[in-house]
Design goal:
The chain is 73% helix and 0% strand. The chain is an all-alpha fold.
């Protein structure tokens, strides 16, 4: 998709902060290793991965499809963070910080989708 890399996209850079999820899940109970911990980590990794994959596809339509998947993973991540907070695995401060980051990323993804849709619909 053009001459620049997916690494140049601010939304990709923003979503690469998945490492915060990894750091915070280290303190989760051991019994959650294959449960909520794993789910959170997979969702966090899926977001920048789908942005990158979509960006390298052949068409704007395909890129939009992968951005949609990234948004789905973001919704999963947000739900899982809320569950972790509810189960008292995350402090309110850490949860709030990550949830704000998910909102920021969602806004950026929707903005990119809007731009790409406008590009698709222009003559």
């Amino acid at each position: 998709m053009g001459s620049f890399s997916y690494k140049d996209l601010k939304v990709w850079q923003n979503s690469m902060e998945a490492e915060h999820v990894y750091l915070l899940t280290q303190s989760f109970p051991r019994q959650e290793t294959y449960g909520l911990t794993n789910q959170l980590q997979k969702a966090a990794i899926s977001i920048p991965s789908n942005i990158a994959e979509g960006h390298t596809r052949d068409s704007t339509k395909e890129f939009l499809h992968f951005l949609s998947i990234a948004l789905g993973s973001l919704a999963e991540l947000k739900t899982q963070l809320l569950l972790a907070q509810k189960f008292k695995y995350l402090s309110m401060d850490n949860s709030k910080l990550l949830l704000l980051k998910t909102e920021e990323t969602a806004r950026m993804l929707r903005g990119l989708q809007k731009t790409l849709k406008a590009k698709l619909n222009s003559p």
